[in-house]
Design goal:
67 residues, mainly alpha
Length: 67
């Protein structure tokens, strides 16, 4: 199989990068949504002020990621 012309290869690469960026942005939005949901859940369960709960959530994040 003959190698693709350089111009074509660059075009494919550029398309691939943009689709990856869109995917990572979507993943980031999903993660942010999940994190804010967890913080809200913790606030409602513990009854703490939001400031304390966000500190607790960031402390517990590695644990929740494993479990």
């Amino acid at each position: 199989m003959a190698p693709l012309p350089k111009k074509h290869r660059a075009h494919v690469c550029r398309l691939d990068k943009s689709s990856k960026r869109e995917e990572s942005e979507r993943n980031c939005r999903n993660l942010r949504g999940a994190l804010s949901f967890l913080i809200c859940l913790e606030i409602s369960m513990s009854g703490n002020s939001p400031k304390n709960s966000s500190k607790n959530a960031s402390k517990n994040l590695p644990m929740s990621r494993i479990g």
